[in-house]
Amino acid sequence: xxxxxxxxxxxxxxxxxxxxxxxxxxxxxxxxxxxxxRQAPGKQRELVARITNSGNTYYADSMKGxxxxxxxxxKNTMYLQMNSLKPEDTAxxxxxxxxxxxxxxxxxxxxxxxx
Length: 115
Fold this sequence. Notes:
The protein has 115 residues and is mostly beta strands. It is built from no helices and 11 strands.
């Protein structure tokens, strides 16, 4: 089992920045990759960014150049640095951990960007 706890969400004005954190615990050795997803009201959950154990990263097109995903192995924590935030970035952001047999999810953290 893997437990994920997100933090760092909040209310920010357009153009501002936030850093989300995801602390992982439990069977961390089983994680192959981690990622951030988001879900806005009335919309499907979408991938924001992903990072593998080898450090390879992937970003959704609309996040490229604005968001940065990273991991701190010593702290078992993943981060999402979000800059130049837009109102359309408003959503619940979820942490995801992928293993060979399943995916684990955090409880989500709300990000609200005001115009």
